Amino acid sequence: MIQKVKKKKPNQYGARKEIKVTETTFGFAGEKPKTTYGYTYSDERYERPVLDAYKISIHKSYRENGKVKKKQWVICTMGYYDFIDSWYGDYYLSDKMNRWLKEMEINEDQFYEIINVKVDPLTKMIEKEFNQTEEYKAEILQKVTLDKYRRKEKEFDKEYGQGEYKHCYDVFGNLRNPDYLEGLKTKKKAQEDYTKRSYEESFKRTYSNYSSGGSSSYSFTSQGNYTDEEKKILHEIYRMASKKFHPDISGDNGSKMKFLTKLKEQWGL
Mean per-residue pLDDT for 5-34? Predict the structure, then answer.
């Protein structure tokens, strides 16, 4: 049974009205301070004016000495907005429910079945009404904003380093520090150029030793001894070198590409 009652005071815990950008500047001694763009929620909340509340109870009728008697178990009382934020099972302790089950002579599944017959339609009705409110629309917009923010942050940090997105962009995706972003791009380009030069110089030294017929100080590891991470690096070396030493690009007789193919076989790729 569900009995509708009225609360004396409105619910004061409506959703926060908006997300706000925060700025925090911090730096260790000897380092240039960095500004981090985070976020918080505004202090202002949406009003929740509906005072309706619902007393949920289970009633049992039985006969005793030829007379009809009734027994009632009050499960809980939930406010209108409690149906949005929680579940009736949050309003009582398990030991209390165990006592009810014993007194009612039913099991836990039967207990929930009895209550849900009445509570489920009421919950759906309240949710439908609440989904038309400005509070609900604001919550959805905030969730979309944060999901987009976290996705972009993950992609950016994967490319430029953990925690770097927050030094460039705010929660709404606005670029706050273009100079810092340019610094990250320059640093990444320098690292890529250095890696590329290292690959090319290593290849040239190995190829020069191979083509001259001399004994190389570079020894190949057997295929089975390379880790998955090392094989990823070797794949990258092969990809970059094959572009540079393809006969159509290098203009040679194909000897460089043949050697590269031999390396690929020795690497087990």
Answer: 92
